[in-house]
Design brief:
globular, three-stranded antiparallel β-sheet, single chain, 0% helix, mainly beta
Length: 114
């Protein structure tokens, strides 16, 4: 809701936990901090979706679903917003944006930085 892109870090050992979970995969700890991330990364690969897995996204096809490697080192699957459509170049720079999905909620998408 606040347009903040945060990642979960273990308060015990300081390791980044992606995806967020109830225990640290490095040390088994259960105390976490949420720290701001840069929101920048690189598009490693993508696919154009024509048949969404969820009916809630049916009105938005086609859309791009991509794998982004964030500057913090993690890889995440996310929606990609690109003026290039299917010709979006692999390896291009991306940055987080926050897309409203209703009821005051937002999802992090990534847009191509030209």
């Amino acid at each position: 809701k606040e347009d903040k892109f945060l990642l979960q870090y273990c308060a015990g050992c300081g390791k980044l936990n992606w995806f967020p979970r109830a225990y640290c995969v490095a040390c088994g700890g259960d105390r976490f901090d949420w720290k701001p991330a840069t929101g920048r990364g690189v598009l490693e690969t993508f696919s154009v979706v024509y048949r969404p897995m969820n009916a809630a996204w049916a009105s938005e096809v086609p859309y791009i679903l991509g794998m982004v490697r964030l500057e913090e080192g993690i890889r995440m699957v996310t929606r990609i917003v690109s003026p290039h459509g299917e010709k979006t170049p692999m390896g291009c720079a991306v940055r987080v944006i926050f897309n409203p999905i209703g009821a005051g909620m937002k999802l992090p998408f990534f847009e191509v930085v030209d």
